[in-house]
Design goal:
About 6% of the residues have low confidence. 21% of the residues are buried. It contains nine helices and ten strands. The protein has 277 residues and is α/β, with parallel strands linked by helices. The strands form three sheets. A six-stranded parallel sheet has the order 5-4-3-6-7-8. Strands 1-2 form a two-stranded antiparallel sheet.
Length: 277
């Protein structure tokens, strides 16, 4: 069956090339000379412009269709009902399916800010980010999200959020995310990588909304390549350098630890001492 399919594919390519060539030949050898010699200049120039425009578009799109990969689309029918019912669309940058409306990121640290930037770049129209009214929370808007602090409740968004990402490591916030998720929504757990992460949720909360809960941990070398490429594309769009705190010498490690505990910055840097001979 595979041999027959390959033969048909090649045969269709050859037929398409022949048809395009024959159409161009008919125009150049018969129609164009006839219209010009009989003074049908409007028809001549109309078909000259429109015909070449169609020829270029047809050739270009056919080239991309036969040489470029169509990408990979996640089969949502097994996980989140059908694509039509959910209104998912294909992201033109990463070739995966994306929710159509909103996303909520719980946590305003480095993971949270990076998540906001990534989702905005992937086409999410509205991204909320839960902050803690700390100094670094001012970066939420600069990373394309809407600040949402712990004492603010999105009543108008209850049962409407497509995706919730937990990156803060606090299990108490999980129920808020379940309340916001729409039926068929997706909940990603990223930050609760510690033993004190027992969840106070019931199976009913998950089943009645047909939710998908997925843990994200570990990564492959290709993910690091994708991360670096993403930073290269967006380095001038988001203030990455501003969320990095001052750099301390290793001898001043206690001061660096104190600044990190205060959580004023996404990351505090420590520079190893240079050994001199």
């Amino acid at each position: 069956m595979g041999v027959i399919r390959q033969f048909v594919e090649k045969f269709c390519v050859v037929i398409t090339i022949i048809l395009v060539y024959e159409n161009a030949l008919i125009f150049y050898q018969h129609l164009f000379p006839y219209w010009w010699s009989h003074g049908l200049y409007r028809r001549f120039f109309f078909h000259l412009i429109i015909g070449h425009w169609l020829l270029i578009n047809t050739s270009m799109h056919y080239y991309f269709a036969t040489t470029k990969s169509p990408g990979f689309v996640i089969d949502l029918k097994k996980e989140l009902s059908t694509q039509e019912e959910l209104g998912y669309t294909k992201c033109f940058k990463c070739d995966v399916m994306r929710p159509p409306r909103a996303h909520h990121c719980k946590g305003d640290g480095m993971l949270g800010l990076y998540t906001c930037a990534a989702l905005r770049e992937h086409g999410f129209e509205r991204v909320y980010c839960s902050g803690t009214r700390l100094q670094r929370s001012t970066f939420i808007e600069q990373f394309g999200a809407i600040p949402l602090y712990s004492d603010e409740i999105l009543e108008e968004e209850t049962n409407k959020i497509d995706v919730v990402v937990e990156v803060c490591g606090v299990p108490n916030v999980v129920n808020d995310g379940l309340r916001l998720l729409k039926p068929g929504g997706l909940y990603l757990f990223v930050g609760m990588v510690h033993p004190h992460s027992q969840l106070n949720i019931t199976g009913e909360q998950i089943i009645r909304k047909c939710l998908t809960i997925k843990g994200i941990h570990n990564y492959a070398p290709r993910h690091l390549d994708h991360a670096v490429q993403f930073l290269e594309k967006t380095i001038k769009k988001y203030p990455y350098e501003e969320v990095i705190g001052p750099t301390y010498d290793l001898s001043d490690l206690s001061r660096a630890m104190q600044i990190a505990i205060e959580k004023r910055y996404g990351r505090v840097l420590v520079k190893p001492n240079v050994l001199t001979s």
